[in-house]
Backbone:
């Protein structure tokens, strides 16, 4: 079967062959448990974990001991949010986030809201941007955490995290960002951003699924989050469970490669994204462009086609694989909460497609994709 052109890189990416090559020895030769400290198999696995931790730390501008491995960004988000809530409850019970966050942030915050915490969800403007002034206005004497994503997974809007983190730091409030979509696409330096906690996943940067990390900056007093999982006390006691050594190696190599390729890929993909947008908008009336067109990921484009059934549009465009929203919420028939946050009507939010480009995207793919969307959207409007 001929596979369609893949334009859903924000959902997941293929594993880079160089990453696979790095992982293979972990499954064939260096298969030991890195916690087995009494023999060479464990020592070899531990060295591989140390190397992976160093690679992640180097890519993000932090120290290796500030990196905690998890099963992915969802677990990292939960560990950060629930962990801060648990260890800082005596300081207060107020958490600030935005209405356009990924559900891996929104749902833990809302769970805490049901458990007695107070959660403020800040609105965005029409481009999906969170105003730092709105964050400042939301901060209270009992605020313990602000969690705002670095780049939106559906519309690509990049948030002013450095400004938000500075406001938090001035008030003694912890700042967390889900950087899952940003890492590998734009420069991400934790020190420059000034944040306390950062989440990421390997499978968004051409690494394996099932591995991610939470960066926890050193501070005084030390921030030691209570674990979500009780067990053997792995990862400084914050994430028990035998480490996924092949995953750690894959994440380390993937983030190393992504860092090396980031600038070149951004310069290559942004014009392709712009060509796709301009071609479709020029050919079809009434197309709505969602997201900030300046502060935006170089690979991400979100368009709404009012009057068009998005499911029928996706099916009709069999030449391409695209998404009608976040992969994590694709089973939910409700309009995208991100697009509703932008002020889009429900019917407009429902009639949207997200195109996300990646390393395998060529100029010819953009030509085919634009032609398919124009053809099918036009046909569906004439029905």
Residues:
């Amino acid at each position: 079967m001929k596979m369609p052109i893949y334009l859903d890189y924000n959902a997941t990416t293929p594993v880079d062959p160089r990453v696979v090559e790095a992982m293979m020895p972990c499954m064939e030769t260096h298969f030991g448990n890195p916690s087995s400290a009494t023999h060479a198999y464990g020592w070899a696995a531990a060295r591989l974990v140390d190397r992976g931790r160093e690679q992640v730390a180097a890519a993000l501008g932090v120290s290796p001991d500030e990196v905690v491995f998890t099963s992915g960004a969802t677990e990292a988000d939960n560990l950060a949010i629930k962990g801060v809530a648990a260890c800082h409850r005596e300081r207060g019970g107020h958490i600030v986030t935005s209405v356009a966050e990924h559900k891996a942030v929104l749902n833990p915050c809302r769970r805490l809201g049901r458990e007695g915490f107070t959660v403020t969800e800040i609105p965005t403007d029409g481009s999906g941007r969170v105003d730092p002034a709105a964050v400042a206005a939301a901060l209270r004497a009992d605020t313990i955490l602000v969690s705002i994503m670095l780049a939106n997974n559906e519309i690509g809007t990049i948030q002013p995290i450095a400004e938000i983190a500075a406001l938090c730091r001035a008030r003694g409030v912890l700042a967390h960002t889900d950087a899952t979509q940003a890492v590998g696409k734009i420069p991400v330096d934790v020190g420059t951003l000034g944040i306390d906690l950062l989440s990421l996943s390997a499978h968004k940067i051409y690494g394996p699924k099932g591995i991610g990390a939470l960066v926890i900056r050193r501070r005084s007093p030390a921030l030691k989050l209570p674990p979500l999982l009780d067990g053997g006390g792995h990862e400084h006691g914050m994430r028990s469970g035998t480490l996924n050594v092949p995953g750690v190696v894959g994440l380390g190599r993937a983030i190393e490669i992504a860092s090396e390729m980031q600038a070149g890929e951004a310069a290559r993909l942004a014009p392709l994204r712009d060509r796709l947008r301009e071609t479709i908008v020029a050919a079809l009336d009434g197309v709505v462009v969602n997201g900030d067109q300046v502060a935006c990921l170089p690979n991400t484009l979100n368009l709404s086609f009012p009057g068009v059934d998005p499911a029928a549009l996706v099916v009709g465009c069999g030449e391409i694989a695209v998404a009608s929203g976040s992969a994590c919420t694709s089973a939910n028939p409700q309009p995208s909460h991100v697009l509703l946050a932008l002020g889009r009507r429900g019917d407009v939010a429902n009639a949207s497609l997200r195109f996300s480009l990646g390393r395998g995207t060529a100029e010819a793919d953009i030509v085919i994709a634009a032609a398919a969307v124009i053809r099918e959207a036009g046909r569906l409007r004439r029905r």
In short: The chain has two domains: 5-12+262-382, 17-257.
